[in-house]
Write a structure and sequence with these properties.
The complex is a heterodimer. By secondary structure, chain A is mainly α. Helix content of chain A is 73%, strand content 0%. Chain A contains 6 helices and no strands. By secondary structure, chain B is mainly alpha-helical. Chain B has helices at residues 4-24, 28-52, 59-89. Chain B is elongated, with a radius of gyration of 17 Å. The chains are: A mainly alpha, B mainly alpha. Chain A: This is NADH-quinone oxidoreductase subunit J. Chain A: It is found in: Cell membrane.
Chain lengths: 168, 102
């Protein structure tokens, strides 16, 4: 893929990502916010494919777009009464927030622009699925097991927290 | 090849947008969505560093997968908490979650 093509793809995806992220945080209807979050997650998956991280991109589509967005939609529907109302109590801290976040973004941009990184010229891993699978079972076996226990604990905890009280 | 700094700038901007959502929105579900934006912008950073600094090791991709697992667990627990609070308070407005205050 030529340089120009990937640059065009990069900026198209960047425009979509920024636009959908802004729509997530400004949307008055939470359903629209959740749908924009889905679009945002898909553009991030596009970046993973652009960065030769095939497996991470596929997992992004499976886990986030297929799982997290659906769970969030369930959450919105179960708490539906107040969700369409724009609550105005947030406006007191609006300007402080915007000023501090613009300066945070400016600082990050400044640092990213002026730092010199040691770019490696090696080719990326071609077959990411088998490579990452092997890494999970060898070098990363301990974090892998810990995170499976964490996921199990989180799911059991979620069920217990969300259960109706009274032990039925 | 696209310069690495483009990816860093983009994920910094996306992180700031997500944080604006966390600080400005008062609906708990909307705050959870904004946290997802922040998690994903950090993930983009990890994968970009992995591609440019050490492409033959793919360690950033491993970290990104771990972050995804944490994010999924966070959404499950967070929504369970929001449901429970909604059942008790009939509200998802964060400003009303003040029963721990004295």
């Amino acid at each position: 893929m030529g340089d120009t093509v990937s640059l065009v793809i990069f900026f198209a995806l960047a425009a979509m990502a920024v636009a959908s992220a802004i729509m997530v945080i400004t949307g008055r209807n939470l359903f629209h916010s959740a749908m924009s979050l889905g679009a945002y997650l898909l553009t991030i998956a596009g970046y993973y494919f652009l960065l030769n991280a095939d497996l991470v991109g596929i997992m992004q589509v499976f886990v986030y777009v297929g799982g997290v967005v659906v769970v969030v939609l369930f959450g919105i529907m179960l708490t539906a009464q107040l969700t369409n109302v724009r609550l105005t109590s947030a406006m007191e801290q609006r300007w402080v927030t915007i000023v501090s976040l613009v300066s945070l973004a400016g600082l990050l941009v400044f640092v990213a622009k002026d730092t010199v990184f040691r770019i490696s010229q090696l080719a990326p891993v071609a077959d990411t699925t088998s490579f990452i699978g092997r890494m999970f079972m060898t070098d990363y076996i301990l974090p892998f097991e810990v995170i499976s226990v964490l996921l199990l604990a989180a799911l059991i905890g979620a069920v217990i927290i969300a259960r109706e009280e009274g032990g039925k | 090849m696209i310069p690495l700094s483009y990816y860093l700038i983009l994920s910094g901007v996306l992180f700031a947008i997500g944080m604006a959502g966390v600080l400005l929105r008062r609906n708990a579900v909307a705050v959870l969505l904004s946290v997802e934006i922040m998690l994903n912008s950090a993930n983009l950073n990890l994968v970009a560093f992995s591609r440019y600094i050490a492409p033959e090791q793919a360690s950033g991709q491993m970290f990104a997968l771990f972050v995804m697992a944490i994010g999924a667990a966070e959404v499950a627990v967070g929504l369970a908490l929001i449901l429970m609070i909604y059942r008790n308070l009939q509200s998802v407005n964060l400003d009303q979650f003040n029963i721990f205050k004295w």
